[in-house]
Amino acid sequence: MTASMAKGADSQSVTVNSPPSVILSLPRTSLGHSYCFVCKKPGPKLVIPSVRTRFLAYTKKKEKKRLDFDNDDSLTDEDYQNLTGLSRANFDDLMTYVERIKSTKARSPRTCIALLLTKLRTAMSNKLLGTLFNMTKSQVRRAVATGRKALMDKFVPQHLGFQHVSREEVKTKHTRPLARELLADDMTSDPVILVLDGTYILYIYIQKSANFSFQRHTFSMHKHRPLVKPMMVVTTTGYVVSVLGPYLADTRNNDSSILKHMLATNAEEMKNWIQEDDIFVVDRGFRDSDILQELGIKMQMPSFLQKGSKQHETEDSNNSRLVTKVVESANGRLKSWKYLDRVLPKTQLPYIGYYVRIVCALCNRYRPPFSRGEEESDVVMAAKMKHLSKQSNTLQQRISDEGLDKRSHKWVKMNECGHVPEFPTYTEDEIRELTLGVYQVKMAKCYSQEHVSEDGVYDILIDNVNDDLLSAKIQSRHTSAKQYQCWIGYFDGAVQSWYCKCKSGSRVVGCCAHIASVIWYMSYARHLPDSTKGVRDRGVGIFDASNVPDPIDESESEEENAHSDMEE
Q1: In this structure, is the dihedral angle defined by the CA atoms of residues 379, 380, 382 and 387, taken in order, positive or negative?
Q2: DSSP symbols for 341-370
Q3: Partners of 300 in the beta sheet?
Q4: Element (H or E) spanning 315, and its range?
Q5: First and final CA of the chain: distance in angstroms?
Q6: How far, in Å, CA of 139 to CA of 374, rounded?
């Protein structure tokens, strides 16, 4: 067959020859039953599927994936963030570290990494992931394992471990100026400041094992459930230097024993990395450890409550606050990866350490620090805290001398006496400067919600004799039978002193959450239209079995009815 086209007056005829046949890329089955219509391989053990099965195999063989990380137009940046915890740009950067993943018909290298991150981020089962990625459960399991090995091979070693970061980099980039001013200002050397904690930063809960010996060793008497615990080494900005373990949870694996094991085995050659005069901020679980002192490392920890005492001394409580102020917990950030916050099956026990390291490396690479702090503001705050730490609690002494905590002393409720004290007003930022922390203000809203009645009244006690003082009894958030009485002194338009009977209530370097609750309400919340703002009651619709109405005496009811009938 020929075709001619005219191109004006001097056009030429062009002849096009049609090919004898045209090959179309369409899937088809063989004519006989000796070959598989899916893989095209011969038997011998083959079955004849139904017509509908053959039709679905034909129509869905080239079907598009539900979640396609290989197509730039398939997912938005928000989709990447929701599924993997990383933006598209961060995910692309992560893929530059991935090597040795071969593409197959079921998944690509990007799909492997996306499956792993989606599982860590959302804690979805392999079966559900298979539905989203249009894969079988076994294909998802193999893809997750492949992605895990690929990240552990190159990405994690470059972003986690003592050897991935230099001492100088930790000092200049990952140490907050406030920590240096509070803990190392009187030292002639320039030490590295690290935070060690294996008790509250991250617990990984696991299923109960049928192996009784392993079950005993993983059962935590503190949490009353089986778990394993990684030991994390963190800087004062929240940057994770290293993750070691995970370790068992029995009494033989306390913080002190774990630290001894780390140094005895020289894990990650950490003994070559740390130096004499370095500072390790630890919690009270390390109190029996003397191995750091043998290495010349200075250990900073909160003070202990003396035996038989109900409250820390003012000096001890002040010094403890200097230590806890520099600690930034990575717990909340890591637990945003929901897989680490669920009870892991026994089959995943060998891989727990890998998952924790991958998440920590991702946070180091793609998350900003908790707080680097500004040099000038940190120096000012440190100077203020150190000055206050040398002060005594004058209000505590006044309460003791005047007997203001005795039952014989008369306190009246503010809403009953008709007298409203001229308490100073503050903004929330000013309250944070007063309490020297954000946690106290956060907890103040929770305490206030419980103590503000339905008509918006907070039970504040005032003294008609001492018009520069007010008091309140704050319910313990842990024990129903316990209340903490606190006092706040104010004059010249400012809060000047405070004292609470809780364990840390005598400190003057900041204040406890009970005192912060009263200050937050009196100086800020009561001036708002809704004084209970900040905490919503989610208990609506939940019944309390102890709240039973008084029974009705039927005899009295019958007598009342008879009496009313007689009157009629």
Answers
A1: positive
A2: GS-B-GGGGGGHHHHHHHHHHHHHHHS--S
A3: 281
A4: helix 314-324
A5: 115
A6: 49
Q: Cα dist. 223→197, 212, 250, 372 in Å? A: 16, 18, 11, 33
CA distance 375 to 205: 40
The yes-or-no verdict on residue 456 having pLDDT over 60 is no
> Bridge partners of 487?
471, 499
Nearest one of 101, 210, 84 to 146, comparing CA atoms? 101
94 closest CA partner among 62, 65, 120, 74: 120
Mean pLDDT of the region 353-379:
91
What is the DSSP-derived secondary structure letter of residue 523? H
Are 101 and 150 contacting, i.e. CB atoms less than 8 angstroms apart? Answer: yes
Q: How far apart are CA 53 and CA 61, in angstroms?
A: 12
Contact status, residue 205 vs residue 227, Cβ threshold 8 Å: yes
The token pair at 421 is: 């004290």
> What confidence tens digit (pLDDT) does each residue in 172-227 have?
999 999 999 999 877 777 899 999 875 555 789 999 999 999 999 999 998 999 99
Written as six digits, the tokens of 143 are 């893809």
Q: Is the dihedral of CA 131, 135, 136, 137 positive or negative?
A: negative
Question: What residues contact 296, with CB distance under 8 A and at least 6 apart?
Answer: 276, 277
Classify each residue of 89-98 as buried b or exposed e, where b means 16 or more C-beta atoms within 10 Å of its C-beta. ebbeebbebb
Q: How confident is the model at residue 555 (pLDDT cuts 50, 70, 90)?
A: low
Q: Which of 504, 507, 476, 471 is nearest to 490 (CA)?
A: 471
Q: Please, which pLDDT band fits residue 4 given cuts at 50, 70 and 90?
A: very low
Neighbours of 411 (CB within 10 A): 19
Say what the pTM is. 0.82
Amino acid identity, residue 224?
A: H
Q: Helix or strand or coil: residue 131?
A: helix
Q: Tokens 């000096």 map to which residue?
A: 315
The pLDDT tens digits for 468-497 are 999 999 989 888 889 999 999 999 899 999
Q: Is the dihedral of CA 57, 102, 138, 362 positive or negative?
A: negative
Rounded distance between C-alpha atoms, residue 142 and residue 102, angstroms = 12
Of 190, 188, 174, nearest in space to 233 by CA:
174
Please, what sign has the CA dihedral across residues 445, 447, 448, 450? positive
> Greater confidence, 306 or 226?
226
3-state SS string over 55-98?
Answer: HHHHHHCCCCCCCCCCCCCCCCHHHHHHHHCCCHHHHHHHHCCC
pLDDT of residue 233: 94
Tell me the pairing of strands 225-234 and 279-281.
unpaired
Q: Taking 50 as the threshold, does the pLDDT of residue 524 lie above it?
A: yes
Q: Cα separation of 417 and 419, whole Å?
A: 5
Structure tokens that stand for 93 in this block: 């950067």
Whether the pLDDT of residue 344 is over 70: the answer is yes
Residue 261 CB neighbour total at 10 angstroms? 15
179, β-bridge pairs: none
